[in-house]
């Protein structure tokens, strides 16, 4: 299709000359928005609904009906998709079909206007100018490579060729929420169009910090904008350039104390209370730019997509999550990412359809993550833990005198500077043979070779610790201990990512398919682990300082005998890639002249070397371990029905049964053998809901003239998820819960006034839970909220 006829086609669709009644009267169901998004350049040869994969498409109207203002609002709308809203924009954890990631690399990928977002710290951004979202479920590794093991989210912004005019949105809601955006779309000629706009959001916060005068802990502001220009100089060439920037400053981490995990409770009065003595904050500046170049040949299309992302952020966290002044973390990230992809593919509608591509990126990332102990933390944790060891030594051996230490530092810092660049390169090919053996049957086969190399340069050390040592009542002053880890390491690996699919289509929109595919999630290094490593080795540094003191020389051999072996930083921080095989069957069906559509799928996923995030032994950081194997199986269904010109219904349900099949924690003994400590086989995989559900209905009323409004719509949906287990032990979890949401739209010309409610019944539930230093913490879901929104398009 030549580019110069596309603007005319889009204009006629939007003006209502083609299927105008359907577009106006049916907003909750997915209209064929793939025809409207004519500027998109997917890697696939055919429309998404014609491919042998499970996928969900959300139009702009569908996003409004389901209150989708950012990716974290997608939970339950797409079957088996769960994106908990906790922490801050730094944390965008996505779980799909039993696959998920809390830290490090994502397991579900993201593309925005064909540009890959490599770091999930960049996933949570404003959807003010987003036109459509595609969610592809199951591994997409053959075409999209690394970190799409669970699936892929593709975000498309509004094209200035499909809409011309100005879009203004103003909104206000309870809890002090306000937002505004303005974007202008202008088509100068049939060859060039551009858009430019900006947005501002203010969040008043939902949760109070009892330790800081009940201030709102999760309030924040953000703002930014996007410019996009599309140039069609000839019938068969396109250049699409986009530039965006977003800055946010927010509070976060409203974790309430839930009690001790085991043992005697000493803080019963604090259970159920959020109480931090230090304010936790997160600031992020995110810049993205991308250039899409495409040439349409007679039998092929070739495109080159260049992306660049710059992310700079700062996290400050009261890491003991209490009103006690123990220790805090300041983490700063600074990254640059440059990607390039060249795709050559055949034109659609041919018996042999194919796609071939090469992809590569380089990401440079520097992270600074110092942990600072305050005076109370020094006394309770460092002094307390060390003196407890000394007491045990004296109790076990009568010849060992009673010993203790007193630290004179007012604060004690554990610094960390890390450079973790990553390089990736890949080549891939996928072919589809249509009418294979019989008419309507197609065979798809593809393979990707993916190479990745990652480095880590680490410089992590403590400040000098000044202390007095007491032995048998005799104080020895002027002692100093310090330690640290400095070095570098690297790792690399190859992955082969195949895909085979059979699909039979007996009429447009009706097919059945079976797919086998493989995906993987990158390996790397847990830099958050260094603070804990240094804490583990601190005792050795203290012993070295004691053994070197002249007054303690006769006891030097006794001291050194109690030194413990500290693992190598490069070894203990490394985690390997995880990979998964996915086996899937599905079908897309239409009934009653497409008034009812059904998307059905069943899957089985076998995951190896699954990456699990855990808090480290001393609670100072997190580590990632490879848990062995897990499996998940389940089913998905999405139904959409148009009963008449006024009533539309939709439902989406997902079921996932995800358990560990080989996850045993072992401890190495002195003789080199291993002892089984914990066996998690058969336990549910954490953070994966067994059920997700979204049920929605819309009633539309077209007003007769004369009337103040042209059209009135009422939309309601019920979103639910659960049961969710929070830890590998499955001792705690969130039962199945649901929230009721509604919206009323009053339309007049190009303006719409909307009144909405989220969690109308004020359902209480938790979105996150974790355990640290034998204490449990949880974040409650957002309470009932009510708002109003005005949108004007002219």
Tags for this model:
794 residues, mainly beta, 24-stranded antiparallel β-sheet, 9 helices
Structural description of this entry:
This protein has about 800 residues and is mainly beta. It is built from nine helices and 48 strands. The radius of gyration is 29 Å and the shape is globular. Residues about 5-30 and about 35-40 have low confidence and may be disordered.
Mean pLDDT: 87
Overall, the morphology is: globular
Please provide the count of β strands.
48
What class do helices, strands and sheet pairing give?
mainly beta
Largest sheet: 24 strands, antiparallel
Q: Which spans of ≥5 residues are poorly predicted at pLDDT below 50? A: 4-31, 35-39
Q: In percent, how helical is the residue content?
A: 10-25%
Percent strand equals over 45%
Gist?
This protein is 10% helix and 54% strand. It has 794 residues and is mainly β.
Helices and strands in order:
Elements: H1 6-15, H2 20-25, H3 33-36, E1 54-59, H4 60-65, E2 81-82, E3 95-96, E4 99-100, E5 108-112, E6 115-117, E7 130-137, H5 141-144, E8 151-157, E9 165-173, E10 177-187, E11 192-203, E12 208-209, E13 215-216, E14 220-234, E15 237-251, E16 256-260, E17 281-296, E18 300-317, E19 327-346, E20 352-368, E21 371-373, H6 375-396, E22 403-407, E23 412-419, E24 422-433, E25 441-462, E26 465-471, E27 474-481, E28 484-507, E29 510-521, E30 524-525, H7 530-548, H8 556-560, H9 569-572, E31 574-575, E32 578-591, E33 596-608, E34 611-615, E35 622-626, E36 629-642, E37 647-662, E38 664-668, E39 674-679, E40 691-702, E41 711-722, E42 724-725, E43 733-734, E44 737-748, E45 751-758, E46 766-772, E47 775-780, E48 785-793
